């Protein structure tokens, strides 16, 4: 014959154990969901940065120099003047993931076997979104990692890759006027160069990139420029002669 007290205790213990399992299961679901959200955010950010870079390159290869390109999810915005809708379509046709172009409110579409139906729309209308400074800093850093702003010896002429990066950074900074950026000039410790010339080269490179950003519409009060001579060298002289744009 069962002891009522013992039976009740066993039932209570079973309920408590089930409650622990349920709580653990909920915690696991919440943790997994949080990790998935972080991974999804990182992947989306990486995809957008890649699309920016490839779209800029395609436009330049087709003779167009927009002020920049930004993406909100899978929807792109091109900054700058395009001769016609047809020019924009031709420029982005070869970029995987671009499906349609919208210029001056008139939408023109093309369909390619290389893209899916849910691929991004590209617009030349001005617009954009203000993003968190940490996200903006990551975007700007990634653009520079892919195409650094480099210089030849004894030169303030920006490399072609660097100009593309300046275009992209300018567009991002204009979209995010709340952010400040430092234009940091660097030089290499060249053999035979005087200390003053090394410092002057870094200052001049910072000034050149500062001016290029302003020419592309970035407000002067959003920027500062500083030269660091050869105090922060990279692995080689070629990569040391550079400018870095640092979002603060």
UniProtKB/TrEMBL annotation:
InterPro entries: Bact_OuterMem_StrucFunc (IPR050330), OmpA-like (IPR006665), OmpA-like_sf (IPR036737). Residues 138-248 form the OmpA-like domain. It comes from the Bacteria. It holds the Pfam family OmpA. The chain crosses the membrane at residues 21-42. Keywords: Membrane, Transmembrane, Transmembrane helix. One of its GO terms (cellular component) is membrane. PANTHER family: LIPOPROTEIN YIAD-RELATED (PTHR30329:SF21), STATOR ELEMENT OF FLAGELLAR MOTOR COMPLEX (PTHR30329). This is OmpA family protein. It comes from Tamaricihabitans halophyticus.
